[in-house]
Each structure stands twice: as structure tokens, then as C-alpha cells.
Design goal:
This protein is α+β, with helices and mostly antiparallel strands and 146 residues long. The protein is built from two helices and eight strands. The strands form two sheets. It has a six-stranded antiparallel sheet, covered by helices on one side. The longest helix has 17 residues. The chain is globular.
Length: 146
Amino acid sequence: MEFQVRIPFVDWLGLELTGFEAGSAAVELALRDELLNSWGVAHGGVTMTLLDVAMAHAARSPLAPGGEPQPGVVTVEMKTSFMRPGEGRLVARGRRLHRSATLAFCEGTVHDATGALVGHGSGTFKYLRALPVAGGRRIRSSGASD
């Protein structure tokens, strides 16, 4: 399964989209040395990124089975709680709780290979068709500029 849009940072991390259905998404990552902290477990930023990407994709997921993906999103705010160190292969699942005309409210979890809960997050995402950038150009979520 492929991500809806190319995100260079997600590519570099090595995230894999393993689920994308109406109201939910799943993302997986096999940890490697450069993603660890000084304790030899997943850096907190890795866990947060997994949650952010899983929830953002849940926000973008179709409203109904077989439907079209929703417009691109940007993260407005996010809260993360860390339960235990992340080790091995991590699986993040995001779920859209509510959608308004401009916002999606989501929650997500990250589990390790044994099924233990590593982290939980909640976030608010804003739907955008284009993102204003420096110089007055706008970049669409598909990557095309106008």
C-alpha cells in the first residue's frame, strides 16, 4: 500500500502504510540504530511522528468504504502520552473521531511487536487544498504548485 502523498521525511524514516480505510489508517516502522535514543529504544520523536502520520492519514481517509480520500491536512495540535519504551517493529493506528467542514479530530496508538502499548495520542488536523509558502506560491497537497 502506498502513501497518498510523498512526504520525504516519512520516506527517510522508512514508514510503511499498512492500512487506509474509512476513518482509520495504520503505519508501521522497523526501528534502526539512527532512530534510537541514548537508552537504545525508539526516540520520542519517532513515536510522535508515527502517531502524527497515522492520525493524519485517518483524517484523510474516505468518509465511507470505497469513497474518495479527503483533502490534505496539516496538524493543528497534538498531545502524546508515552507508556513504555518502543522496541522492534512499531505499529501505529489512527482513527478519525469526528470531522467538521475544516477540521478532523483523531486519536492514535503505537504498539510494539508484542502488542504492548508504547504511546497514545490525540490530534486536531485542518483540511487544506493548498499550503501558503514563502514567496506567495501555494503548494497543493498533491505536490503541484500554482
